[in-house]
Structure formats: structure tokens, C-alpha cells
Amino acid sequence: MKFLHLSDLHIGKSVNGFSMLAEQRRAFEQIIALVRAERPAAAVIAGDVYDRAVPGVEAVRAFDDFLTELAREDIAVLLISGNHDSPERLGYASRLLSDRRLHICGAFDGAARKVALADEHGDVNFWLLPHIKPLTVRGALADRELARARERRGEAGRERMDERERAVERDRERERGGEAGIGSEAGSGAGSESGREIESGREIESYGDALAAALEASAIDYSARNVLVSHQFYTWAGAEAPVRSESEISPVGGLDAIDAAPIEHFDYVALGHLHRAQAIGREHIRYAGSPIKYSFSEWRHEKSATLVELGAKGSLSVSAVPLVPLRDMREIRGSLAELIAAGTGRGDGQGQGRKEQGAGQDQGQSDGRQSQGAGQGEGEGQDQGQSDGQGENRQDQRPGRGDGGGAPQASREDYLRVILTDEDEIVDPMGKLRSVYPNIMSLGFENSRTGTDIYAAAAAADAGEIERLSPYDLFSEFFLEAQGSTMSAEQAGIVRELLDEGGEE
Fold first, then answer.
1. Phi and psi for 334 in degrees, rounded to 5?
2. If you write DSSP's letter for every residue of 439-486 in order, what string do you get?
3. Residue 410, CA atoms < 13 Å, CB-side half-sphere
4. pTM of this prediction?
5. How many Cβ atoms are within 10 Å of 121's Cβ, its own excluded?
6. Is 413 left (phi over 0), alpha (psi -120 to 50) or beta?
7. Does 117 lie in the same domain as 160?
8. Which of 64, 107, 125, 381 has its CA at 20 to 30 Å from residue 397's CA atom?
């Protein structure tokens, strides 16, 4: 069985004030084209369909258009809610829509929802497990047990009612006493059952406990072919930590981390939540990543859709199909004059051409290293390397790149983070730059007054090297995040003085 693994659409998201809807629609067009070419049996969307719990009208319309196009291709669609979604809103009319092969699991109701799809080897069981928290699972399991207790109480009551009806004619007074006794007995039984479940529910304290309880309640037969669809933060003991992005919601201290070992027995695990495509511990436990870039911590990522093919039990192949954006997200740096000259062709263009080409080469090399370091095997490493190579070629083959003719229109309209290296104060640098590069999302400075590239901390954190940063660099990142601007020379001097006095630097 062939199916498509997607996640983290974040429809309706804006990045630095720029709407990503056009980029999202572009990605959906490529996904529909992939469906027509590969003819998968299903498309799996592993959470974070929308960016907000209450999405805007345009976001809802974009998703409706996407689902409509998928339905026209006669494939099943299976999707779960993520931490950005409203489970109840996403799950509206889900029971009706399941008849149209659109299977939506919005809210967790005590167990993963099973959807069976058949191929020549038999059934493949897809287990839909929306984003869960310990409190969510405790409440759902308690509600489920209470419902079962009421059902048991109702059956016992009906049986005893028959007995009472036979005894009515003999002794009406006895009947009334029997009702009181029966009601008291049933009530105490239900209370004890629900009390035990609520009491046991208090043992679900961590996200790992919640996952274990949800899987146990689902009664999964692991001898069959099973696919888990989940939206959580999974890790693997002894492996390098997964690559996270700054646009993801991350609880303090990694409280949401779950050991992936309990889900190893599934034939494939379709994960959502992390924005970079990567495997976790085992090749069949995978994050699909987001279809487009949602922060500058992702600017080196090559986005893709994951194509999965399950054969007989134990047979699996996975490939990544690149998704090409309308506008790329990238970083450029240099003096104001150099960047404007490179964009308009009023200079020789060689300096900026070399810088951008170097960034493209670094991107391919860096992504290849990260793919292997994140626990991905040779298969994905090769796919990622090929994908990165294509991305690099797309950059380098744009006409006019570094040939003295200025940046081509396509690259000028990319989403940019610009770092200016000028030593002198500049009047309205953003206005001057946007006359050439209209889609600048972020502007920073790197010179002797700032003392450091203000984005170095974020870049190092994205590469897992935050421990190498000095306290001053870390504070610089914090100040920029909190104030929206870099420290002045006077402020920087005060910070350095305080750190020196405290012996922290």
C-alpha cells in the first residue's frame, strides 16, 4: 500500500507579518500533482492542519480547496489534530465525513481511532492518535470508564426490573423496597468503578504515561500491519536529539518529550510536530516536516512530501519528494551599498554572488550532516542529499546570479533575513533595502558596535551548539527577542561590565 505522509500545514500562518497562504497553496498544488502521478491509496496528515485554534476564513477556504482536490483523486484522507488545532472544531462532522473516506480524529476519546484500508496483502490498520497531554488522557479514560459503568448498571437494572415485575403482584411494598435496594447497590458499584479509574488516572503524570495508557486502551494487534499517526515530540534514548525549529511550541525543560521505544512495533509511524523531515531512532519512525519554511531556523531545510510504500509485513520503502516554494527563505549579509548593487546590477555583482553561492553550498553540506546526525539511515541520507543538491542547483541556475547583471527577479523577491555590516549609522536602511528586495522579513546588524552577529545565537541553537555561546551572546539574543532591536553601544558596554564583575565571561 502506498500512501502520502504530510504534517504541519499550519494553514493561515504569517511569518514576520507576511502571509504564507500563497506559499501553502503552491505546496498543495505540488502535492495534488504528486497524488496524480503516484496514485497513493491515502494521504495522511499528522496534525497542525491550521496555525490557530480559530482559523481565518481564507485559511479554511484554502484547506477546503485542498481536501476537495484530494477527494477528486479518489483517495482516503486520514488526519489528526495537532497542538495548534482546536480538536472539536477540526473534528466537526467527522462521523458523516468518514463515509466519504475523509477520516478526521480531532479529540482524543480514550483510545486511538482505527481505520482499516485494504490492499492485495490484506488490511493496513491506521491508528489515529491526536495530540494528547496527561490531563487529556486522564479525563478521557475516566469518562470512558464512567460510560461503561453506566452501561453495566443499566443492564443489571433491566434484569432486576424483570424480576420485580414478576413480583409486583405478590407484594407491592416489597417491590418499592427492592427498588431502593437495587438503586443503592447499582449506584455504589458505579461509584467504585469510576473511583478506581479516576484513582488510576492520577498515575498518568507524564506525556510518556499518557502515550502508554492510550496505546494500551487501543488494544492493538501487532501481528497485523499497523501505522500509527501521532503528533508529539518523540526522542530516542542514546541518539542525537531531534532537530527543532523556533516556530514550534516547546514546553520549558522538554516536559513534552516522549521516548519513542513504545511505538517501535508499528510497521510505520507517521509523525507530526517537528518541522524538519527526519527519522527518530529507527527508519520507520519519521517526521514528515512542514511543507514550507516557517522561520529562519528552517532556512537551510529542503522541504518535501514523504511517500511511503508498505508491502507484506516487514516490507517498507520511504522516499522524500521535494516541494519547491514560490519564494525561498534565505539569509544575505554585507554592507548596504554591496547588497543594493548586487540586487540592481549597479556593481560588478561578484561579491554578493559569491556569498549567496557559498550559502547554497553550505546548505547542502549542512543538511546532509544533520540528516545523518538526527538518526536517519543511508536511504534518507541519500534522498536528503539529492534533495539538497536539487535545491542548490535551483539557486545556482537562476540567471544573473553572480554574473554582474544583478540579482534576478526571483531571488530579489525571496523572503530575506538581511544582516548589514556597515560601521556607520544608516538612515532608513529597511526602506532603502526594500526598494530592491521587497520581501525582507528581518533586518539585523553585525559590526564592531554590536560585537557579534545578533543571529549567531539562534543559528547555533538550531545546530545544537548553544553550549558554545558566551553569556554575552546569549543575552544579546534575549535582548533582541524581547526588545525587537539590538543593544546600543552603551547598553552593550554595561552588559559586558556586569558580566566581567560577576566572573561570568
1. 150, -175
2. TEEEEEE-STTT-S-TTHHHHHHHTT-GGGS-HHHHHHHHHHHHHSSP
3. 13
4. 0.72
5. 13
6. alpha
7. no
8. 381
